[in-house]
Design brief:
heterodimer, A: 410 residues, alpha+beta, 28% helix, B: 163 residues, Nuclear Transport Factor 2, Chain: A, 6 strands, binds FE2/S2 (inorganic) cluster, binds fe (ii) ion
Chain lengths: 410, 163
């Protein structure tokens, strides 16, 4: 029985079944994950020709690589002979792919180049056995893929989120942004619980009290953003931005302000090799941007890192917190970024375990009152049009669920 | 160094490592903090084979200040996950004396099998643990503890204890 999805998503609330019904989850895989643009990698993970990494689009294992011509490709990680995965390592560099089972050999573009004992086949056309290529497009180093040949161009899909991505990337501090490492964890809950969370400022002072207590005065000040002029904006196509720290929206502005005391040591270290202008630019970029851009369905450019979602089942989700830094930038600045990431993010961070606990509690709660208790998204409903200064408005969640409804009923 | 001395060193180190494990399982964090030298480093790297912790991402890369903040977080009541912290039980074994530092500190590697229990489920965390231990009377203080989780490079879950 297919449910009436438009009845499960209202303007201000969604039905509990969205967290619990395995049939809905299967439809989400078909109609969302396998239909729209899904973020798969960042350019810096494939710096050279023939570089490859393994990852997933939803539940399907894929290889993301830069082929020998330099084109970024996303291909199913599945041999066309009897279907073994071709790569199991996380990354590598190779002029081609050899399946370990019977040694079918593929070029970096996925074409079948050779196989042992070819005479054993009659009428065999290698052209019929190219690795399945997904559509792959990039925006400013962010690589997305889709199974859907009819999906709009990536840039059109990103739409009004693009200028926010541009702003986010300024945290390279004058250098390209580079992936420095990642924390990965799962939580026993539906993926949309985490999707909501990246645009939920309301929880921050509650759930992250122990993090806030661990900060020095100035940093603590920065993170007490409930009344600091922040706001949430619906960017279309399910995307949204939540601005928490307005003065850190454009990291190339206010470069002549004094360097905060807590970065004095870092600034001194940088001065040995950098001009005063560069030092200011790097220091201002070191803590990341003052906003989260939530891109439907699986990526957030979240202050100083990429948050990547992967739905595993209706009640199991994988989350990656990818640390980013300055490609070719000073080691001291990248170290500072790594330490900041470790402080909040990841399974042992001062923030993430509390988030994960809250999300699990939402999933556990979803066993109660399936029809009588809805998931409320009505904070700041009156502010949706104007975005008038409420960082805790649930505008971003409403945007995501309206996109969900559009795709699920299409 | 004679075999006899090495055997005694290793036995003492094993006893000390068991004590550390017991303090963490019983959540006696104040006593645990006192086991460290001030410049000690507590490291849980992401990549189990990592050697350059400073320039790579770790789960924890703690100096004394971070260790005490971490303990404060686990005990303050401000953290919802720590307020319902997992119970843990760890077995430590397979102690091997790898050598000595230039300062004469012991370098030891041990195995750690840790089981956590929370929300009706057990989870397992298995790790090689590397120690640098400084002699202090008949006991030791920790100069370095590196917990190399076997599955460090893959997905973990929220950790509300100290591995
Ligand atoms: S399954 Fe790949 S060569 Fe047979
Ligand atoms: Fe959070």
């Amino acid at each position: 029985m297919t449910r009436d999805y438009s009845a499960l998503v209202k303007d201000d609330r969604v039905h509990t079944a969205l967290y619990t019904d395995p049939a809905i989850f299967e439809d989400e895989i078909d109609r969302i994950v396998n239909t729209t643009w899904v973020w798969v990698a960042h350019d810096s993970e494939l710096p050279n020709k023939n570089d490859w990494i393994t990852t997933h689009v939803g539940r399907q294992p894929v290889i993301v690589n830069r082929d020998k011509a330099g084109t970024v490709r996303v291909m199913l990680n599945r041999c066309r002979h009897r279907g073994a995965t071709i790569c199991e390592a996380k990354k590598g560099n190779a002029p081609g792919f050899v399946c370990p089972y019977h040694a079918w050999t593929y070029g970096t573009d996925g074409t079948l180049k050779g196989l042992p004992l070819p005479k054993g086949y009659k009428d065999f056309d290698k052209g019929d056995y190219t690795l399945v290529n997904l559509r792959a497009e990039s925006y400013r180093g962010l690589i997305f893929a889709t199974f859907n040949q009819d999906a709009p161009p990536l840039e059109e899909f990103l739409g009004r989120a693009r200028p926010w991505i541009d702003l986010f990337l300024k945290q390279g501090g004058g250098y390209p942004v580079k992936v420095l490492g990642e924390h990965k964890f799962t939580f026993p809950g539906n993926w949309k619980i985490q999707l909501e969370n990246t645009t939920d400022a309301y929880h921050f002072p509650i759930v992250h009290k122990s993090f806030l207590s661990s900060l020095d005065g100035d940093t603590g000040e920065l993170f007490s953003f409930m009344d600091a002029g922040g706001y949430v904006e619906d960017l279309g196509n399910g995307h949204s931005v939540m601005v928490m720290i307005p003065e850190l929206v454009d990291l190339e502005e206010n470069l002549d302000e004094p360097i905060p005391e807590r970065f004095a040591e870092l600034a001194d270290e940088l001065r040995a090799e950098h001009s005063e202008d560069e030092v200011r630019r790097i220091v201002r970029a070191v803590t990341g941007s003052g906003f989260n851009v939530n891109l439907f369905p699986n990526l957030a450019c979240s202050m100083a890192f990429f948050r990547v979602l992967r739905p595993l089942s209706v009640e199991e989700t994988e989350v990656r917190h990818i640390a980013i830094g300055m490609d070719g930038g000073p080691a001291a600045a990248n170290r500072a970024r790594l330490r900041l990431h470790e402080h909040f993010q990841g399974p042992m961070g001062f923030g993430t375990p509390d988030d994960a606990e809250a999300w699990e509690r939402v999933q556990r709660g979803s066993q109660a009152g399936e029809d009588s208790v809805w998931i409320m998204l009505n904070r700041g409903e009156d502010k949706t049009e104007s975005n008038a200064g409420d960082v805790t408005a649930e505008t971003g969640m409403r945007a995501a669920y309206q996109m969900w409804k559009r795709m699920m009923t299409a | 160094m004679s075999t006899l001395v090495a055997t005694r060193d290793l036995a003492l180190a094993a006893e000390f490592i068991a004590l550390e494990a017991d303090l963490l399982d019983t959540r006696d964090y104040a006593a645990w903090l006192a086991l460290w030298v001030p410049e000690g480093k507590y490291v849980v790297p992401v990549n189990p084979d990592e050697t350059n912790f400073e320039d790579t991402l770790n789960y924890a890369y703690d100096d004394a200040a971070m260790r005490s903040m971490r303990v404060r977080r686990l005990t303050s009541g401000e953290s919802m996950s720590a307020a319902h912290a997992a119970r843990t039980l760890r077995s430590v074994s397979r102690f091997r004396l790898l050598g000595h530092t230039e300062q004469g500190e012991l370098q030891v590697r041990s195995a750690q099998q840790l089981i956590e229990y929370k929300f009706d489920r057990h989870r397992t965390y298995v790790a090689n643990v590397e120690w640098v231990l400084r002699r202090e009377g008949e006991s030791f203080r920790i100069v370095r503890k590196v917990v190399r989780l076997l599955n460090g490079g893959d997905a973990l879950a929220g950790i509300t204890f100290l591995p």
